[in-house]
């Protein structure tokens, strides 16, 4: 007999299923017990008491100190709730963990503003040292990196000031990594102070001054970079550098805090950072959620994580950190979502040590690292988002007003999508809105990273204190060692140097991007000896590159050899409508030495068989139009997550020369570049004209005429309206046919004015107009008269061309008229009015002020009275023009965003404008100014010094002249 293997198998299977069910039951029970024993703790600074048990709103604790007594007992599922609207002082250090599905949560309860956890502590007992310097020795060991006066952040005092020559920097003449010899150092000895050195264009390094003599400053510790010749430096954290109200310093060794104040600071609210980290997640504090809190005032980090996984920070406000907002170290799977992070002196969000799976979404981040010398010393400390590690997601964030880089990552499989980065590289440069770097090849680039559907605009470049003459800000920048990155569907505009910059990086796929108005180059490829990577394996296709000035170039390539020619270039649009010669520039070793090359597109195609299907701009423009680029080459951008409609007032073509419709839809985070061109055979839109009817209350009205009867089409095309059944503004109902006939039914018992907007079409374009319905009672209603007002000079009579009835009406739709006659006014003048409402007003001699007179309208049966209000003003005074000052680099045009009239005014409060035109300046330059005061200044070639030009403002009658002073450096 064979063994019963089938029965043995069934027995084994049944036993296995039994064990599995038993284990699942145990897990479920354990999870149930976890949730059963989880505790909610309540804290209220306004109504709590630390002697309570903290387990209900009515028995809440009062302080974070009380929370910290039980902090080590927190476990999975526990929730700590701070009362909304309350403020709590202190810090939280957590060393316990939650679990998957049952995190430890820090959140809020109640209604009102987010609860505030502050690390600021008050400073009192100031000692007067004379010269408006006050001091206080600060106990403890915490970092003092931010100070607020009456709730406002104050800057550390520096020397020299940023308003002084060279923008507040001394200049490095020679250096080591522990000393600097500077030009024109003052006799003051800054030993014991802190020196701030912009060692390289992309980093500030702060060091303690150990000695100073004979123009040489020595410091410790060693700098990361050798300070470059011509780099800038200044001194701070010394009371002698504090010379303006609120400026302060802090000596880290003696812990002496000093402030410049002309008012006794003991009478002021002065607070400093009193805690290094406000929330510290320390070693294996996994599964922690922080939500709906406002954290402010940290010496180093508002939230600090070390070796903790599955951290979630959402819907919080994080502000006023002397260092970073959120610091992640050696963990995984952080989720940072929906936060507002602002006013931090170093990174808003930063990770290091190969942090994995960070997700940063839906955050608004602004005012990051904007003060030179404040924050954290060194490299990568000033980027708004700086992530080192793989599998990073940065999605749907808004970043603006940034001292350095917007989004920086190192590692593979990153997803950077639907972010907007604006106004960056304001304090440091050689950065970008979006940036990647792996100079030492420490991190994998096996899986492709993606940079998709981002908007990057206004990269400034920071020349103050830089060793380089040219400020450098880029849009999207793949720096040393970056590879395997897909860059697609991005819009980059208004960038100081390069729109897209590839530096010693390979396998980069650049497609379907729009780059508009970059100061030097739209696309910039640079290979040098700093890294072994060559620029190969790259694709550059289907991009729209638009130069908006005669000096901007489309493409620049610098290579140690010709291997860049193996990349794919095709189907792009190289648009420089002013002059398309030499739009492509090369500098490379062709085998017989380095040589520069300059090509037109046709020459580039012929020489290298690249960009064979690439096109030039669809139009040619006069170079004079470059100052009006937004009119001649507008870039429309949808920076929202919803489709948006854009309307054109002129005729435009796209990059293919196809005429654009008068309105179009852009999908989220997309853009469209257009070129102004008159349509040779335009189809003009139809013209829809408003219609008015009167309808009795609760009565359906069937039209005897069409809404189209008073509409017309300039092209003589057939007109129709959009048919259907619609609701009116006041919830009436209208059934509309394509021929314009309709049936209208008012809402039950409604009387008054109802409106409905209909759409007229000629088959190509549309217009819209209103059907105005006056729903009236069967009984007559009185007309409605509304006040009128005019303003006149003293002793000026006025004969109107507009009727007093222009804003009056009759609810029944009856014809109305004015009761005519001559009537005395309130101040001794007279009003003569005719039945059509036209009138003549004569004031009392020399009267200044407000005069009034009544007039009466009638519908033939009932009447209504209103007032004519006349303001008589004294003699007109001329406007006042105040001089304006700007500074521009040599050979650089200046297009203003601030009106010349911003500091001008009219004593009478009259509206003023600038007399427009193009004017020659004192030194051979030109000024073109519009009536709103916006202007373009073009200096004389190679001129350096001060230039001036007059401009004239007017109030419509009198004028005044001001000067624009231009310093050209």
What does this protein structure show overall?
- There is one protein chain.
- This protein is mainly beta and 969 residues long.
- Among the domains are: 35 residues; 145 residues, no CATH class; 54 residues, Golgi alpha-mannosidase II (Immunoglobulin-like), CATH 2.60.40; 86 residues, Immunoglobulins (Immunoglobulin-like, Sandwich); 86 residues, Immunoglobulins (Immunoglobulin-like, Sandwich); 85 residues, Sandwich (Immunoglobulin-like), CATH 2.60.40.
- It is built from four helices and 87 strands.
- The protein has a 14-stranded parallel β-sheet, with no helix packed on it.
- It is globular and about 95 Å long.
Which short descriptors sum up this protein?
969 residues; mainly beta; Immunoglobulin-like; 14-stranded parallel sheet; 87 strands; 5% helix; disordered N terminus
What's this entry about, in short?
With 969 residues, the chain is mainly β.
> Counting H and I runs of at least 4 residues, what is the number of helices?
4
Shape: globular
Oligomerization state of this entry? Answer: single chain
Largest sheet: 14 strands, parallel
Q: What's the layout of helices and strands?
A:
Layout: H1 5-37, E1 40-43, H2 64-70, E2 79-83, E3 87-89, E4 92-94, E5 104-109, E6 116-118, E7 120-122, E8 127-130, E9 133-137, E10 147-149, E11 152-154, E12 158-159, E13 170-175, E14 179-183, E15 194-200, E16 203-213, E17 216-220, E18 232-236, E19 248-250, E20 256-260, E21 270-273, E22 277-282, E23 288-291, E24 294-298, E25 301-306, E26 311-314, E27 317-321, E28 324-329, E29 335-337, E30 340-344, E31 349-352, E32 359-361, E33 364-368, E34 385-388, E35 393-395, E36 398-402, E37 407-410, E38 415-417, E39 420-424, E40 431-436, E41 449-452, E42 455-459, E43 473-478, E44 483-488, E45 491-495, E46 498-503, E47 506-511, E48 514-518, E49 521-526, E50 539-541, E51 544-546, E52 553-559, E53 568-570, E54 573-575, E55 584-589, E56 594-599, H3 601-608, E57 615-616, H4 629-632, E58 635-637, E59 644-647, E60 652-653, E61 663-666, E62 671-673, E63 675-676, E64 691-696, E65 701-702, E66 720-721, E67 724-727, E68 733-736, E69 742-745, E70 752-761, E71 766-776, E72 788-793, E73 798-799, E74 817-818, E75 821-824, E76 830-833, ...
Parallel strand pairs: 1-2, 2-5, 3-6, 4-22, 5-23, 6-24, 22-25, 23-26, 24-27, 25-28, 26-29, 27-30, 28-31, 29-32, 30-33, 31-34, 32-35, 33-36, 34-37, 35-38, 36-39, 37-40, 38-41, 39-42, 40-43, 41-44, 42-45, 43-46, 44-47, 45-48, 46-49, 47-50, 48-51, 49-52, 50-53, 51-54, 52-55, 54-57, 64-71, 72-79, ...
Antiparallel strand pairs: 7-21, 8-9, 9-20, 10-11, 10-21, 12-18, 13-14, 13-18, 14-17, 15-16, 15-18, 16-17, 19-20, 55-56, 58-62, 59-61, 60-63, 65-69, 66-70, 67-68, 68-69, 70-71, 73-77, 74-78, 75-76, 76-77, 78-79, 81-85, 82-86, 83-84, 84-85, 86-87
